[in-house]
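Archive entry. Fields below.
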Amino acid sequence: MWLFTKNDKPRYVYTFGEAVGLDKNSLWGKWANLADMVGMGLPIPMWFTVTCETCAIYYENNKTYPQEVLDQIEEELVKLETLMGKKLGDPVDPLLVSVRSGAAASLPGMMDTVLNLGLNDESVIWLANKTNNPRFARDSYRRFIQMFGDVVMEVPHHDFETALQAIKDEKGVKLDTELDTEDLKKVVVAYKEVIKKDTGKMFPNNPREQLKMAVDAVFNSWNNERAIIYRRLNDIKWLLGTAVNVQTMVFGNMGDTSGTGVCFTRNPSTGENKFYGEFLMNAQGEDVVAGIRTPLEIAELDRVMPDCYKQLVEIYHGLEKHYHDMQDMEFTIQEGKLYILQTRNGKRTAAAAVKMAVDMLKEWLIDEKTAILRVMPEQLDALLHKQIVPTAKASAELLTKGLPASPGAAVGQIVFTAVAAHDQAEEGKKVVLVRTETSPEDIEGMHAAQGILTARGGMTSHAAVVARGMGKCCVAGAGDIQVDEKAKTLTVKGKTFNEGDIITLDGSTGEVFAGALEVMDPELSGDFEALMLLADKYRTLGIRTNADTPHDAQVARKFGAQGIWLCRTEHMFFAEERIKAVREMILADDVDGRKKALAKILPYQKEDFIWILKAMEGLPVTIRFLDPPLHEFLPQEEKDILALSQEMNVSVAVLKERIVSLHEFNPMLGHRGCRLVITYPEIAEMQTEAVISAACELKKQGVDAHPEIMIPLVGFKAELDFNAEIVRKVAQETMDKYGMKIDYKLWTMIEVPRGAVTADKVAETAEFFSFGTNDLTQMTLGFSRDDAGKFIKEYVAKNIFEKDPFQTLDTEGVGQLIQMAVEKGRATRKDIKLWICGEHGGDPASIAFCHKVGLNYVSCSPFRVPIARLAAAHAALKA
Amino acid sequence: MWLFTKNDKPRYVYTFGEAVGLDKNSLWGKWANLADMVGMGLPIPMWFTVTCETCAIYYENNKTYPQEVLDQIEEELVKLETLMGKKLGDPVDPLLVSVRSGAAASLPGMMDTVLNLGLNDESVIWLANKTNNPRFARDSYRRFIQMFGDVVMEVPHHDFETALQAIKDEKGVKLDTELDTEDLKKVVVAYKEVIKKDTGKMFPNNPREQLKMAVDAVFNSWNNERAIIYRRLNDIKWLLGTAVNVQTMVFGNMGDTSGTGVCFTRNPSTGENKFYGEFLMNAQGEDVVAGIRTPLEIAELDRVMPDCYKQLVEIYHGLEKHYHDMQDMEFTIQEGKLYILQTRNGKRTAAAAVKMAVDMLKEWLIDEKTAILRVMPEQLDALLHKQIVPTAKASAELLTKGLPASPGAAVGQIVFTAVAAHDQAEEGKKVVLVRTETSPEDIEGMHAAQGILTARGGMTSHAAVVARGMGKCCVAGAGDIQVDEKAKTLTVKGKTFNEGDIITLDGSTGEVFAGALEVMDPELSGDFEALMLLADKYRTLGIRTNADTPHDAQVARKFGAQGIWLCRTEHMFFAEERIKAVREMILADDVDGRKKALAKILPYQKEDFIWILKAMEGLPVTIRFLDPPLHEFLPQEEKDILALSQEMNVSVAVLKERIVSLHEFNPMLGHRGCRLVITYPEIAEMQTEAVISAACELKKQGVDAHPEIMIPLVGFKAELDFNAEIVRKVAQETMDKYGMKIDYKLWTMIEVPRGAVTADKVAETAEFFSFGTNDLTQMTLGFSRDDAGKFIKEYVAKNIFEKDPFQTLDTEGVGQLIQMAVEKGRATRKDIKLWICGEHGGDPASIAFCHKVGLNYVSCSPFRVPIARLAAAHAALKA
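PREDICTED_STRUCTURE:
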């Protein structure tokens, strides 16, 4: 664990000189960058560092550390004092320092910082005299006391504000800058009283005591709530702790030749290759970051301090070349002299990331592989959907926050039923469908709506999955809202909305707002296309899509999908004119009755397949046969049952009896998928005839159709055999009828654990496996995705698992079954083709796993196709 | 495939001489026994055999075989004719033969037989003259025509009966024996007309044509419906087909010195070592088997034909010694000469099997291992439960047949609710609880009832599992019945029963009868105990039990369980005085509220554990922590909700909201098991305190208690760790409070596929795994046991799988996961102990698998313990 020792003793503290040349991934992150810059001869205020390991020791030992830590701090402090020719706590010309956190990964603003440490009642007088700026000295001192009180002594920020306000009120001014030196002296006294009152302790006048307290405070801030949350949200797990950096203060607030700023070597928002940033004269860094005063654009600096600006421009060019990436820099000018306080690779928007990667490649700054790896696949999501204009949120009324189930933005009038959504959309209204939860019956309404809001269900609930498939904004599982579908009201935190009221959803964050917020459309740049083509060059995984309408198919094709590998057929059963025949089939007493009803569905299915095969001309379309249990097609509500009874001329009693007899306790584990065909072979017969005759019709028209049939939910080879026999027989009959030959294929899905475990057997019949990782995850983990939403949060919070396994493949568990099935499948059939088509097919981490275990393809919803292309390239490059 | 060839040509036909000395497991079963007997010098009518392979060829070649088959038959026929000095079809002194089926396994009565083949219009006259018994001749001839018409020419049996009846009516007699020779001549003519009319073909007068047709008919009967069903039911899969045996006829109906009989070397019903059987003089074998005339006891033969009897007794002793098993023999006496027609190991009742095994061991006829293997574990079930007196069924009104969910017999008055069952049983009535399906709330009522009948649910539905656990008779999934719990009526096939009406259930067959049938109690003999001790000597698997009441624990202990390894705790939550506190806990808004409610449950749980630990003193008791989702404890019906609302002083609206919010779409995959504890740690805290304080109280009393705690539904090591930490902490606190040390253990269940797949990780924390194969089967196969009952029948019927995987472990799928978990678990922890505790723990085939993969124990319901002991011994001996 120890990188260095000194005379065989542990080293807790290093000077900046020692850090020069250290790998930037070593233990104290951005301080390594500073050391880099020292090595490049740039003007950096000197410092020393207490290591991250010391923080770990601090926590391992009940918030204490060995005396050697203090000894080594003192040793380095003395060195710093010698170098600077100043002493901490000297009443004349004292050394002032900042005490900052610094971990190997950036945790921006999550941990604490103390500036101006070393000031006290004596040195403030000297500072006033020395700078001939008594106001600056008093202002620095009161800032220090406030920051120290807040960060180190845990005095509520509010109490300082109250004290300050009282003095401002007394003087009758509004701005801090309107206070003069004498006022600020009063503020210092008032602040000290606040500390005394709130903590029972005096503000420490001894700077060495201040330093010890500040170091401990920074260590403590490693485990404050927001830092813990940030690390969890950003999946930062491998850090030891934070380093503490004690650095000589430089002052941007020493008058009109001083200033401070933040700048980026390129525009972090657009990616434009133009120096970008802002600064404030006569200010400290916190003023820029906190946004209290309005800063100036960086280009203005050329006018105000031309020499400094020239130097800064030279430095930024140098740093970009050095780091081969856009830099985010902080600088301070103290009395005309420029200091660089920090540089790091800058955060950027998705659009900027794409543009910078493509630009830097053109500029020979980076190579193709680096360009690809510069853009995180997940980032692309934001580029593909409508977004709420960020400034619009500030003034909007946030009603609640649900799960960000499907990205994008939606503004519309509330409707509570799929029928209302459909009807009102026909009238040209923009609507948002609000439901307790959605069901397959709602599919048309979901399609018609701008967005969907549900009170229940997780990230992989019906609403979420379908919405993502459509690329439609969805906020799911908004537990705070109560939906009364009868009364047509949505109640949230005591406020009630009626049908027709307007709300806005942000599907990327899960936010729900009252009223209409301004929304902007996505725009795909040429750079985006260039990056996609680059990704295609390096990836080895094929990318296909899950789509079941010609529209979705076209979207996916536009995004670069190389075929449809999951075309679900059940949604096709719900359209108004078909559901009647479907119900007739379900209610039939015998095979003949069912066949009669199925014959009515056949022409519709055939038409569906004609359109979708046409939309994907030249590319394969894998059609999954009927999957859900039959009861999903029957109504549950009294009035719908009554209506159906009249429509079908079947008594309510008989209808109810059938509904009850079809009811299942655990429909996920019920009579569905290929199991339906074991009982009702005629369903597969109809679907086969529809697929093959659609292909024949298209062939007649000269359209190059590639239909493939996929049998869902296979757990036993014999199930597949039974289904396959029907498909082959009916396909042959249909081809004979047309006098044509269609080169259709027959695949299976591995989504039941038993299918994976016996993959060697299943592969005897199947030439292709598709891993349906949604169901495979449900069954392997024993988690119903419709129910687990309620407790998965607890699981993540309590670190039982790292990520929601319905979003990111559980590689340790489900992944092992996939790997087993890959090995067993290949053992039986060397050239078997393998892919996944669950929700995980669009998740970058899961795609990396698919690459690793040697799958051939991934299939995902249309709007995830670009993400999958890039993720597949990342996986190939990182392998 | 070919055992023999003759001049390098395939052999289809063998003479009896060639078969002598062949292994009795060779291809033609009982005919090998006949060959044996020829070798022993016993009087056997001569024969030749067409092999089973020929039957296979017949089916492979679209019901044809090569000409060589007929050639070889002719060749052997000529040999037989030469040997007998008679010719088939000779008008004078013709050879008459029987044509019979014979497979390597016994399929009693399932395939066809033709007797007296060779008779025709000419030879019948000779036969009449020769035997000086024209009536016998004509009777033989008309029997032959009827049998040939029925079996070979597929004439409905009924048509012959009608023709015969017409002649009897004409003469005014009732019995066949009252017809004289002239009447029988008329019958022959009438029968031939029936054949002509029904088939359009003449009855073949040429005996060689008769023979060819009869051989084909026997082959055809191999695949008649009843033979197929019998093979499926008896799991006979490895047979090639049936052999055809053409044997010289001997006649038991040649007058008063002729006769025929069936006998057993011991009593097949009781096992008593006493010659047992019956015979008829002047009759053919079919008369005895068909039960048309009432036969005499075998001992009577000593009086009628003392020489024959003496010879028979000598033979039976010899055969038992030769085969080391009880023999079931058929014999015929033709004019004073005894012929043995068949011997085979006799079928026997469970009681007889046990007695014979133990007796034969004592008699040095067999060794210990053979004695153990002589009793099929499954047979024991019948010995452990009440049975309907077999003769009582004949005259009873069978209402319907459901699934034989839990063996035994029950007679009682119908009740429709658990409360009524409980109340009326308190009044001393015997009741049968009839429900659409049962739920955990019904537990007290089930306990009070004599038996349970449900309209829904499979062999592993709640009712079935709980009833088997209680050793209580249950018929489940009787789809024909309609239960109206409100109107308190049970309707079956149009007939309606009310509360108080009496019915009888046979849980071993699934039959439901109207009224009260006579029932007999089980009685366990000393032989049973002796066999159990023998089994214990050879088995290596430990046998424990699943029990959650002191009564069940005592039963299991009496049956030889070596501990309780699945004590479910959820049933304890349902008792009237506790359910209120449980509901209070569920409805509580916060931790404090839940803790308050749990504190009320604690004393009850503690009391439960005290009693059960006491009942199992000296043996381990593994207590599984709460498993079901919480919504199972809340009422669903309007009136119960209303009652609860008043009882708890909570508004109906709030109550319903909570019920809705707890509702799960797939409760099997929901918030249950160890997952509950992740959200509500206080539940595990209470249960731990109850277990450990119960053990402490017992220790104070000097009782040797061995509590063990089992955490259910673990899929992630972290889940187990989270639970384990709570258990260890609270256990320590409780022990500290008592100032005692309890050596409790902490196990986990592997019942989620992920748990099996990551067993290496789970074993880092768990020292023991129990495979919960019920849930593991559900999740691995993706079959809900509550729902799959509806389609599993189709699966078995269509050969998708061989057996219901909820009854017999699916070794290919679920078994592979178990094996993987065994290997992974042992890799992490060499001495890890492994067992199963699902329903499969009492299934002999599954127990054999457990032995094979190296588990240490199986745990099953109390009444399965003896079966498991014997099955474990079988597994060890067969390994």
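CURATOR_NOTE: Chain B touches chain A through 49 residues (CB under 8 Å).
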